[in-house]
Amino acid sequence: MIVELTPRRVLTYEPRVGLSASHDPLEVPAYETTRDRLVARAVIFGLVSAGLLALAAVGDWRPAAVTGAVMVVLVTALTFWALFGYLLPSRKYLDLPVMALSLGEGELLVSGRRVSVAVPGVEPRWIVARLPRPYRVLLAGERRLFLLGPNARGRVLIALPGMFRTSFGRVRTEPHPGSEILPGVSRTFGPAAQDPVMTAFVRAMWQSSVAAVVVFVLAAVPLIAVDLTEDAALAAAMVPVDAVFAVLTVLILLRLFARNRLFANAVRSQPWNELPAALDAPIKLHPLVWAVLRP
Predict the structure, then answer these.
(1) Domain locations in the chain?
(2) The whole model's pTM is what?
């Protein structure tokens, strides 16, 4: 295990080792942007839910309003979970110094979605975290990660090179049960289509889009069931709900598939190119880059 204390040439965005993340020109704006978006969504979805539930008290609108309210409440619950279960608890870690770990042979293990990373020290310690497959492939290729923490409960916040998305992990005395050595992957400059990390991320984007289609189809089932009722007044009351649902479904799916096609085409046809850069202004994230780095 190597604990890095000196800067080195990097090819992607990386936190500043030895400094707190709150001093990074990108980390705090990234956190604040995500927080503001989640707060706005929580407020909007909460108001829409309240409005639909209030509308449910109005005669013929009751079935349509209740159906719409249930769907919006589910989205609101997911938003609140992301805000209060993940984002806000991560804020306290931004004041801790960043430590970088380079992983040697046998120091990176995997068991399903969980990875176990060896931590240097007198006593054996492991950081166990759950990572999606693209991030496991990225970690296998880079063999490096960044840590914030641990806190008093042994929780750490980990980040991978080039990524703004972070994950919580815990410090344990042994790796996750059933863990095996995570084999490395080769990353070289050349056709992006031959980069296992890029192909893993593109595949995950398509899989998430397919999952979104399935969710929308399942959400449409109760709407269709209500539409098929013999109650003409009820069916008429559902028309606005059906129209809004259809428009939102089309817009969201078009956006997802357009994004996927853009990056899939780039990966399939473009090679990697390294370009030196000289900065003369504060760094800001372009919205398109933000959508990819922190989905």
Answers:
(1) 21-94, 97-181, 192-269
(2) 0.73
